[in-house]
């Protein structure tokens, strides 16, 4: 690790410690989420003033499919090092298939022996949350241990890949495929948006990939469609979470994580999803009070 990187990390850490709470927004969000039937954590940062809101922001939550962001990081690091190529073709074998896949896993529908570019695997992993693509890419990135070492080297102490990672079997039983905190995942999205992860060009590619989200009926549905948003959500029965960076006119980042949810339904009216939409529209109106855009609930 270079001295320059360590110096920048020191500056970032020192700055984070100096951040101030947006007390007005803190009160609004605390009121909004106080009756949620489950465990919830939120971290919001105004990327203009760097004021923050933190509600159980350092509590560990399951990532569910948000673990695909650290996997993206692992792949892009390999590409930066010249060990993989973004447009490199790889071949599907039966051992790469995720047995519990559903209709959303387009890669699993490919024929054995068929080739696909790494770039398309990344698109499917992030946009449609394809699980076969995710596990395939995790292997190409060097596995969970290597991705976790990379996360640790970048200062992410809690965010980890648990799935298919030796030594993490017990913790996987508790948190599933991966784990993080709202603060750490928001920090990762902020670092990507500020072109500080791996290299400026690599960060920009990651940002573009995270901006191509198929699942847009949650937080994204409350933000005007002509505003760039980098987003990833993760859902299992007892946990519905989402992290999103909104590029402007007033940029901000938000990470919402839940666990132990009482409502485990999969309809649009699910309590956690409904709350996510309410948080998202509150933030959009708070940071953009002159906006006249009104979300269309029919698109949920």
Automatic annotation (TrEMBL):
Entry keywords, A to Z = Hydrolase, Signal
A Pfam family recorded for this sequence: Beta-lactamase2
Q: Where is the Beta-lactamase class A catalytic domain?
A: 41-258
InterPro entries xref list = Beta-lactam/transpept-like, Beta-lactam_cat, Beta-lactam_class-A
Q: Which organism is it from?
A: Siphonobacter curvatus
Q: Which Gene3D superfamilies match?
A: DD-peptidase/beta-lactamase superfamily
Catalytic reactions of this protein: a beta-lactam + H2O = a substituted beta-amino acid
Spell out the SUPFAM superfamilies in the cross-references.
beta-lactamase/transpeptidase-like
Its BP terms in the Gene Ontology are:
beta-lactam antibiotic catabolic process; response to antibiotic
Q: Residue span of the signal peptide, if any?
A: 1-18
Q: Which family does it belong to?
A: Belongs to the class-A beta-lactamase family.
- Protein name per UniProt: beta-lactamase
Signal as a keyword? Answer: yes
**Keyword Transcription among record annotations:** no
């Amino acid at each position: 690790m270079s001295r320059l990187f360590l110096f920048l990390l020191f500056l970032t850490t020192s700055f984070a410690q100096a951040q101030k709470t947006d007390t007005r927004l803190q009160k609004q969000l605390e009121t909004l989420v106080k009756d949620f039937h489950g465990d919830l954590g939120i971290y919001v940062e105004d990327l203009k003033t760097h004021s923050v809101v933190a509600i159980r922001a350092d509590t560990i939550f399951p990532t569910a499919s948000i673990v695909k962001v650290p996997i993206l990081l692992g792949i892009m690091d390999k590409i930066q090092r010249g060990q993989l190529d973004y447009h490199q073709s790889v071949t599907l074998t039966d051992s790469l298939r995720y047995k519990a896949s559903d209709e959303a896993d387009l890669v699993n529908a490919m024929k054995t022996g068929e080739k696909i570019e790494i770039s398309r695997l990344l698109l499917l992993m992030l946009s449609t949350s394809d699980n076969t693509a995710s596990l395939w890419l995790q292997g190409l990135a060097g596995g969970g241990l290597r991705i976790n070492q990379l996360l640790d080297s970048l200062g992410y102490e809690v965010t980890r890949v648990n799935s298919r990672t030796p030594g993490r079997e017990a913790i996987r039983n508790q948190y599933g495929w991966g784990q993080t905190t709202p603060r750490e995942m928001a920090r990762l999205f902020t670092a990507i948006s500020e072109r500080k992860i791996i290299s400026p060009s690599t960060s920009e590619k990651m940002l573009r990939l995270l901006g191509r989200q198929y699942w847009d009926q949650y937080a994204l549905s409350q933000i005007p469609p002509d505003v760039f948003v980098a987003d990833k959500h993760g859902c299992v029965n007892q946990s519905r979470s989402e992290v999103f960076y909104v590029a402007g006119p007033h940029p901000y980042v938000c990470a919402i994580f839940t666990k132990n949810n009482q409502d485990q339904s999969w309809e649009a009216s699910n309590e956690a999803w409904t709350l996510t939409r309410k948080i998202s529209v509150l933030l959009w109106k708070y940071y953009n009070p002159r906006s006249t855009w009104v979300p269309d609930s029919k698109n949920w």
